[in-house]
Amino acid sequence: MKKLSARRRHPLAAVVVLLLALACTGGLYAVFAPADKAQAEETAQSLTIEEGKKLYAVGCASCHGTGGQGTSDGPSLVGVGAAAVDFQVSTGRMPAATSQGAQVPKKKNIYSQAEIDQLAAYIASLGAGPSVPSEEKYGPEGADIAKGGELFRNNCAQCHNFTGKGGALTKGKYAPSLEGVDPKHIYEAMQTGPQNMPSFPDTTLSEQNKKDIIAYLHAVNSDETVNPGGLELGGLGPVTEGLFSWIFGLGAMIAVAVWVAARTAKAKKS
Amino acid sequence: MSTESTTESRSRDKAPAGERVADWADGRLGIYSLAKANMRKIFPDHWSFMLGEVCLYSFIIIILTGVYLTLFFHPSMNEVEYHGSYVPLQGQLMSEAFSSTLHISFDVRGGLLIRQIHHWAALIFLAGMFVHMMRVFFTGAFRKPREINWLFGFLLFVLGMFTGFTGYSLPDDLLSGTGVRFTEGAILSMPIVGTYISFFLFGGEFPGTDFVARFYSIHILLLPGIMLGLVVGHLILVFYHKHTQFAGPGKTNKNVVGMPLLPVYMAKAGGFFFLVFGVIAVIAAVAQINPIWAMGPYRPDQVSTGAQPDWYMGFAEGLVRYMPGWEIDFWGHTLVLGVFIPLVLFGLVLMAIAVYPFIESWVTGDKREHHILDRPRNAPTRTAFGVAWITVYMIGLVGGGNDLWATHFHLSINAVTWFVRIGFFAGPVIAFIITKRICLGLQRRDKDKVLHGRESGIIKRLPHGEFIEVHEPLSQDALYTLTAHEQYQPAEIGPKVDENGVERKVKGSEKLRAKLSKSYFGEDGQIPKPTVEEYKEITSGHGHH
Amino acid sequence: MSSQDIPEENLPAEQDAHVAVADEKNPFADPGLPPHEHRIQDIDERAAKRSERTVALLFTVSMLATVGFIASYVAIPHDKSIFVFPIGHLNALNFALGLTLGGALFCIGAGAVHWARTLMSDEEVADDRHAIAAEPEVKAKVMADFRQGAKESALGRRKLIRNTMFGALALFPLSGVVLLRDLGPLPGTKLRHTLWSKGKLLVNMNTNEPLRPSDVAVGSLTFAKPEGLEEHDHDFQNEIAKAALMIVRLQPDDIKDKQELDWSYQGIVAYSKICTHVGCPISLYEQQTHHVLCPCHQSTFDLADGARVIFGPAGHALPQLRIGVNDEGYLEALGDFEEPVGPAFWERG
Questions:
Q1: Domain boundaries in chain B?
Q2: Do residues A168 and C283 make contact, with C-beta atoms less than 8 angstroms apart?
Q3: Best mutation site among C26, C127, C205 for testing chain B: the one with the most B CBs within 10 Å?
Q4: Which of residues 55-114 of C touch B (CB under 8 A)?
Q5: Which of B151, B447, B525, C91 has its CA 20 to 30 A from that of B485?
């Protein structure tokens, strides 16, 4: 203590005190401020939910019920989570009112991202469910492509084909092609299991697993994918290869054979 | 061929080295006698006669590229961890067969090209054989004396299918492994012996660690060896029988009109080999085939949708897909009809086309040689049968790809399956009736053309105001070509009594033959071709109609 | 029309009968080979020269293409990819090698064919055919020779030799058949058993962790293997081919089949992943309809109704594994499958 009192006249003492004071204030602010902020966010959140509820009443309630409890035209949305809303609405699958046929197809999205967030917030408020993933969850950092390939073949390829070109299900339903699908939507689809797709919750397909799968898909089914042998022919396997060999392979052979066997033009008699 | 022709041209100047070599060889092999019969052998020109050459050349290409692939391929199912240059599989467990195929595709320079040439050539080989076979069928080229060669060709087609199947199963990838699994299931369905054959083929339970090595020796030695023998036999018979030809002026059943082997067909056929090889090489440069890296290594618990075999097995795949799942349990045994019936049908449908030549020759009772080809319309029943057979085959192909039909044409897979189930029965019948009618219609048109001439498209107004189209009489060449075909009369059952007046028993086979013959050659089976008398009556009268 | 039983009588007259008849009498007679017409190359040396140059050019292009092939092989790295419109990203070496090889071969062929078509004689020649069957005299000679040979061999007379020879020839192939015995073991009951047994935990294929009931959500799809089976095991492939499991969770009320309900745990049901048709890993699960479709041959099973077959070529339902929960709260098997998994076979019963 002696040492301290001896130095309180030091020219730098004032600076030290000031710094300490600042640190204290900062610390206090840091302790108390979040509460304020959280309160502010909560207000914003409830506003968002309120907005979402209005959008819901206009666009969704006719099928899913006024409180999201579901009707005969649409399933209950309690507990589906924000991820499901983001997936369904961003990919244009919902609202499905105009859709016909065995399943609801992907189409043009009619909502802005802000509106989708509002809708998602409202649905999330009805019951806990998967939230919209942040970019680091589906980004390429730290992903094991090869492991993703194995997981894809184990969990996904049976419906979506080796490299995600899609395939048929029963009675006109189908697993869509995954070409050009936003990684976020792939992540959300795995989490929530839209329509007839089963879900792959984090308890059975971990977050790292999902990240690996998305990285694998990007490697084998994107604009940058290299098909070393040339034309991919739809990536559908032997059926298109067979068609190609008949039409272009045998077609070329026959064209050449016609040339080889044809009579050469005779000199014109004048 | 270029060296040979230069040798020949030089031989006129002085006795050169080439001639001395030929003399040496003749003294030991008798090549001059062989060359005398064959060097100027005549081959008729027609594009459809070159379909067989497409097959022959793609077969040679497959052998050449296949030998190259064996230098790098390891037919082993030992598990290895992959550390080659294809990133999305690094660190994965796979069989050595799969990893060596990846090595060929990514790390051997030109390896991918040779693999793709090999596979594309195989698809074209089979497609070529199919079309060649249909050409022979629809023109009646299978008739005496070529029935045996027809069977040789048929065997080549069937063996080609299995060589292809064992070949694409070698890389042990997820797609082909699924096909092998299907094969195992089909073998298991065989009554009594199924499980035993399966255990012997796979060296125990599926998949085991043996089948790649076993398929390998079947694929590169056993089947191609047999096929090579059959190809040589096929070619010897083609040379021996001399080629068939279409009817036309100067072409008879006793001659063959065309160009000599040396030099024209040496150049054309030799050149055609290079053309075929060139086309396949370009296809292999621009179009990817069987990207096993995208499919991944085989695991019996993994699968991809759209699991189909190569096209030539697609018809069998279809039969399996649209068969209902019948299964009978009795006395502790299971009769797996849902799989076994398609297996049997697969054989029966193929046999149907194989034995047709013998059925037809029994119905016609014709034992003469035939070297003039039929136009398909002039053999309506045969043509209709052929089209019906193709219909069955094609419906099988559609059924084999029912999932892709469903996704690409927005149909229900169940609806597609029901369509082919019904189509399997109704399709060939409808195709038969329609084809026969079309053939008869074309025969009538030919008859019209012979009797009334060709429609010239010129409209003439007669003095009394009637409009007529001027018909130009056909040239004699055309008249001959259109009337050269033979027409049989329906066979009749002989008299009920023999020459001694004793009643004889008419055998069932005789009745059947008479019935068949009537449907072939009776009133509904063919249009009688125009006779000289009809022609003269019309042309001498009012020629303008 | 004859009334004989010899169909030959019905055969049409030989075609060549036409030929003898004069044209005026028979307008359908064979006019004979048309006269040969010359091509432009036959009468115009300049045209012939042009053809020669074309052929030479094609052969030269082929040579250049081969040089290009070798140059590509040496110069292009094997892992270089390029973008080629409209094909896409592809391997540069494969593309270059294929095009140059194809070009080299095609030009040789095109040169040879053009040469044959334009410069070699195109005059059609007729060659006589001869009957394939031998003349009667030849046949008689052969038959006489054969009889002579057969007589000299005494095969017909000395029946003992003949019969023992046939016996020996018929028996010896059996050695070959016997030798095939070691191709594989006998089936025994191998197809009836899998690795599953009482108390084996259900291990998640993705995470390699044992599953708890709470991990499995309604509408989710999970694949499981028996504990202790690892990918590196030498018999992994054979075992997973039978033991692969498909786990889904249904609302217990949705389960229509009583046995299925009894064998489930809180709505969690475990079915064999191997199709009962021909053994494809069936797993196209539609969570709303509870149907599962096989991607190979479209057999469809209703997982809410004892995995009964509702469409396609499969002959019987998917086998269900009876499951429960052990003391530590993990899902476990309560025994092996009660019937063989996978494709049906004769001894299945």
A1: 40-314, 375-495+515-545
A2: no
A3: C127
A4: 73, 78-79, 87, 90-91, 93-99, 101-113
A5: B151
Say which amino acid occupies B326. Answer: W
Measure the CA angle with vertex B475, ends B470 and B477; round to 5°: 150
**Which segments in chain B show pLDDT lower than 70?**
1-14, 541-545
Quote the CA–CA distance of B87 and B83 in Å, as a whole number. Answer: 8
Instruction: Say how far apart CA B397 and CA B391 lie, in whole Å.
Output: 10
Q: What's domain B40-314's superfamily in CATH? A: Cytochrome Bc1 Complex; Chain C (1.20.810.10)
Q: Which residues of C touch A147 (CB under 8 A)?
A: none
How many CB atoms lie under 10 A from the CB of residue B532?
15
Does residue B541 belong to the interface with chain C, where contact is any CB pair within 8 Å? no
Inter-chain touch B249–C34, beta carbons under 8 Å: yes
The confidence band for A62, taking pLDDT boundaries of 50, 70 and 90, is confident
How do the domains of chain C map onto residue ranges? 40-118, 191-348
Question: When comparing pLDDT for C206 and A23, which is higher?
Answer: C206
Q: Looking at the complex, does the CB of residue A1 fall below 8 Å from at least one CB of chain B?
A: no
Distance CA(B297)–CA(B86), nearest Å, equals 13
Question: What's the DSSP call for residue B309?
Answer: -
Dist. CA B161–CA B172, nearest whole Å: 18
pLDDT of residue B143: 95
> Within its chain, how far is the Cα of B36 from the centroid?
33
Q: B358-373 pLDDT, tens per residue?
A: 999 999 988 899 999 9
**CA closest to C286 among chain A residues:** A196
| Contact yes or no for A168 and B407 at CB 8 A | yes
Q: What does each C-alpha distance from B500 to A187, B495, C70 come to in angstroms? A: 93, 12, 85
- CA separation for the pair A226, B341 (Å, rounded): 43
Under DSSP, is residue C281 helix (H, G, I), strand (E, B) or coil? strand
Residue type, C238: N
| Nearest residue of C to residue B257, measured between CA atoms | C126
Cβ partners under 8 Å of residue C95, min gap 6:
A230, B285, B286, C82, C84
- Mean pLDDT, chain A, integer: 85
In DSSP terms, which residues pair with A266 in a beta bridge?
C39
Mutation to test the A interface, candidates C83, C113, C206, most A Cβ within 10 Å: C206
Q: Which residues of C touch B98 (CB under 8 A)?
A: none
What is the Cα B125 distance to its own chain's centre?
9
Strand partners, A74: A71
H-helix or E-strand spanning residue A18: helix A13-59
CATH code linked to domain C191-348: 2.102.10.10
Query: For residue C130, what are its two tokens?
Result: 């001869």
Q: Between chains, do B271 and A172 touch, taking CB under 8 Å as contact?
A: no
B91-to-A3, A164, B172 alpha-carbon distances in Å: 64, 22, 17
| pLDDT tens-place string over residues C259-279 | 999 999 999 999 999 999 999
pLDDT at position C21 over 50: no
SS3 for B188-206 is HCCCCCHHHHHHHHHCCCC
Q: Which of C195, C341, C345, C347 to mutate to test the interface with B (most CBs of B within 10 A)?
A: C345
- Could you tell me the two tokens for A174? 């189908």
Element spanning A145, H or E: helix A145-155
Taking a contact as any Cβ pair under 8 Å apart, which residues of chain B between 58 and 77 contact chain C? none
pLDDT tens by residue, A4-43: 555 666 666 666 666 776 666 666 555 555 555 666 667 7
Q: Distance of CA B25 to CAs B11, B30, B105, C75, Å?
A: 16, 7, 44, 45
> Tens digits of per-residue pLDDT, B424-472?
999 999 999 999 999 999 999 999 999 888 888 888 888 888 888 888 8
